[in-house]
Write a structure and sequence with these properties.
This protein has 115 residues and is mainly β. It contains no helices and 11 strands. The strands form 2 sheets. Strands 2, 4, 5, 6, 9, 10 and 11 form a 7-stranded mixed β-sheet that branches. A hairpin with a 4-residue loop joins strand 7 and strand 8.
Length: 115
């Protein structure tokens, strides 16, 4: 069983920044891909950004140029730096880890961007 613990959500004004962190309870080298997803009110959960074990990244078009995902395998962590936040970024953000044995999710952290 892999546990993912998120931190760093909160309330910020439009144009501001937040940094989300996720710590995995297992050796990060066993995790193929780590990432962040979000679910806005009334919408389906969507991909925000992912990073592979080798460091390849993928971003949703809506966050390209504003968000940066980073992974430190030695610390079993993945962070999401979010800049130039917009009200439409308001959502619950979930950390995700994809292993050979399965997919795991964190409990989520709320991000609210006020206009």
């Amino acid at each position: 069983q892999v546990q993912l613990v998120e931190s760093g959500g909160g309330l910020v004004q439009a144009g501001g920044s937040l940094r989300l962190s996720c710590a995995a309870s297992t050796n990060s080298f066993s995790i193929n891909t780590m990432g962040w997803y979000r679910r806005a009110p009334g919408k389906e959960r969507e991909l925000v950004a992912t990073v592979t074990k080798g460091g390849s990244t993928n971003y949703a078009d809506s966050v390209k140029g504003r968000f940066t995902i980073s992974r430190i395998n030695a610390k079993n962590t993945v962070d999401l730096q979010m800049n130039s936040l917009k009200p439409e970024d308001t959502a619950v953000y979930y950390c995700n880890a994809l292993l050979v044995l399965g997919t795991y999710w964190g409990q989520g952290t709320q991000v609210t961007v006020s206009s």
